[in-house]
Each structure stands twice: as structure tokens, then as C-alpha cells.
Amino acid sequence: MPTILVSGGAGYIGSHTVQALIERAFKVVVLDSLITGHRGAVPSQAIFYEGDISDAELIGRIVKDHQVEAVIHFAARSLVGESMLKPDLYFYENTAKSNGFISTLLRQGVNKIVFSSTAATYGVPEEMPISESAKTEPINPYGASKRMIEQSFYWLEQAYGLKWIALRYFNAAGASLDGSIGEDHTSETHLIPLVLKTALGQREAISVFGTDYSTPDGTCIRDYIHVVDLAEAHILALEALEKDLESGAYNVGTGKGYSVREVIDMAKKVTGLEIPVLDASRRVGDPDILVAKVEKIEKSLGWKAQHSDLKTIISTAWQWHKCHPLGYE
Ligand SMILES: NC(=O)c1ccc[n+]([C@@H]2O[C@H](COP(=O)([O-])OP(=O)(O)OC[C@H]3O[C@@H](n4cnc5c(N)ncnc54)[C@H](O)[C@@H]3O)[C@@H](O)[C@H]2O)c1
Ligand SMILES: O=c1ccn([C@@H]2O[C@H](COP(=O)(O)OP(=O)(O)O[C@H]3O[C@H](CO)[C@H](O)[C@H](O)[C@H]3O)[C@@H](O)[C@H]2O)c(=O)[nH]1
């Protein structure tokens, strides 16, 4: 089996993808600075390098020593709020470093990349569900930093033959089905882990950011995608690149949205616990509804969400949080 280099493989989505790659007998090398990731999230079968994607010398050595064939590139900063305060950090850490990383890889003869993009590239969409051909006008530096990387791929393909698939994730959630790994962000901003931390008594209440949106219950609607389904999308994308599928961007979502209240109600049902709720004001930059159109990935990659019903997402996340109340520590 070919060797796959996974940048950011100690992070939330990266570690679940590494687990899936190892289950399929790929050889996996993880490169992660551990700035937000966890050494304990990386399965022992993967070779681990602690280092930064900007370290060209290290990358050159990894590619040579392990005969890397393709890369899955997760490593990034991904806090929308932080990106509004420090846009320069996001353009450096995400856009500039990715460009350097990909140049180094191309120089070493690695020309296949699966890239973590985001629904945040769309900004405030004019159509719902959102298709890949919708306009991309990000409304925060995080989304802009990712959009710029996608745009660079087009030119790198013309000049150097880069083959690329950008997966635009909607809301990643859930944990591995065997309970071994899960979501552990030190600065947690995502709804589902925060709701479950509230159920565990680690937070006093879950704030509902905005109750006056143009949705049936007034709270924002999002398309939650199970991290195990996301991992599978990466494997199919790798296989598609091997078969010379055309490069491009693909949504990864379910096509179905749930409101913040629906998520909290499901968490109450799954945990059997009371979860105190506080209605709060809107968070800046949250669109009413974000739901993916998923025909493209279903048709071209043969991918279909298998575990992304809300109950499975929250049950697996709950199993992880209950057994690891302090995360990987
Ligand atoms: N979580 C989501 O809902 C979501 C949605 C859309 C897109 N994404 C994207 O998916 C990717 C993974 O997200 P996540 O939630 O797993 O985040 P995460 O923070 O858990 O994982 C990112 C990993 O990259 C590592 N890293 C960061 N900068 C690095 C660098 N310069 N060199 C080496 N390693 C570095 C971190 O230590 C961490 O392990 C990111 O690119 C993110 O922007 C996430
Ligand atoms: O304590 C909280 C946290 C979140 N929310 C709400 O829950 C929904 C989901 O919020 P998340 O922070 O979990 O996720 P986002 O939709 O903001 O962000 C996700 O989707 C984005 C695409 O728009 C990016 O891809 C980003 O990286 C990814 O985390 C939003 O309406 C948010 O306002 C709350 O009500 N209370």
C-alpha cells in the first residue's frame, strides 16, 4: 500500500482519518506541530513526526525516507473568531505555510493532495442547499485563507501538474465508533462538544447564540457531518486521485440541517441529563442556514454519509466525552 503523509494528523479530523487509513492498511506518516493536536490521538501504527509544515528540510527527509505518494493536508488554524482578531496569523499559518508546504512536496515529486477546506469559503450563500459552483465570498479571514489555498491549486496544477481535491467540510462532529478518539480542542467553540461539556457539569449552561434567525425555531441551522464519514471521504478522494479523477472542490455534508435547539434536545435525549440553556445574542458572522448540496461527491467519489444522523453523531461524541472528561490529558 502507498505511504500517505498526513499533516495535522494529531488533530480532531486528522486523527480519525489516520485511524481509517490504518484500518485500510495504508502506511501513514503523521506530521504535526501539536499546537492544537494531541500525541495520544495518533494510533501507534502511524509513524509520528513532531514538526511544522514550514520545515522544508524535515518534509524533504520524510518524503524520501518513507517514499510518500500523496498527502492529506489538515494542518491549520481554524478558529473563526480568532481569525477576525488576527487575520495576519491566519494568512501566514494557513495560506503562506500551505503554499510553502505544497511547493516543497512538488519539488520532492509528490503531486497528489487532499485538502481540508471549509463551508466558510462560501460566506453568506445565496442558494440553499449550497452547491460547489456557488459564489465563494468568505466573510472571515479563516474562510478567506482557505479559499486562497484552493485558488492556488488551480495554478499549481497548470504549472506543475498538481492533482488536488479540496473537501469543503460542513460541521464536523461525533467521535470514533469504538470510543477510542474524539474531539478535544483546548479553545472549544463548537456547539456539540460544548453542549456535552454542559451535560457533564463542566459548564453552567449552553448559550444559544441567537433566537431570531429566519428558521422555524429561530435558531441557526447547520449540516452536521460525522467525523467517521468525513474520514471515509478522504480515503475515497485519495483513491480518486490515484485513478486520475479531475481535480476540484467537493462539499462534504449530508444535505440535511438541524437547528441549535434540535441539537440540544437530542443531547438531552441521548445523555438522559438536564442541560441548562441560556438564550443569548447572535454571534457575529453566523449565517441563518448552512446546508450542503452533496450530489457531486456522491456521484464522483461514490461517497455517502453512513453515520451522520444526529443521534449517532451525539451518541458517539457523548461516549467519548463521558469516558474522557479531560480529553487526552
Ligand atoms: N472542525 C470542523 O468543523 C472543520 C470544518 C471545516 C474545516 N475544518 C478544517 O479541517 C482541518 C482539521 O480541523 P480540526 O477540527 O481537526 O482541527 P485541529 O485543530 O484539531 O487539528 C489541526 C491539527 O493541525 C496541527 N497543526 C496546526 N498548524 C500546524 C503546522 N503549521 N504544522 C504542523 N501541524 C500543525 C495541530 O496541532 C492539529 O493537530 C483544519 O484545516 C480545519 O480548518 C474543520
Ligand atoms: O456555544 C455555542 C456554540 C455554537 N452555537 C451555534 O451553533 C451553530 C454551530 O456552531 P459551531 O461553532 O459548532 O460551528 P460553525 O457553524 O460556526 O463552524 C463550522 O462551520 C464553518 C462553516 O461555516 C467552518 O467550517 C468552521 O470551521 C466550522 O467549525 C452556530 O449557529 C452557532 O451560533 C451556539 O448557539 N452556542
UniProtKB/TrEMBL annotation:
Annotated NAD-dependent epimerase/dehydratase domain residues: 4-253
Keywords, comma-separated and alphabetical: Carbohydrate metabolism, Galactose metabolism, Isomerase, NAD
A biological process from GO: galactose catabolic process via UDP-galactose, Leloir pathway
InterPro entries in alphabetical order: Epimerase_deHydtase, NAD(P)-bd_dom_sf, UDP_G4E
Cofactor: NAD(+)
Subunit-level organization: Homodimer.
Protein name per Swiss-Prot or TrEMBL: UDP-glucose 4-epimerase
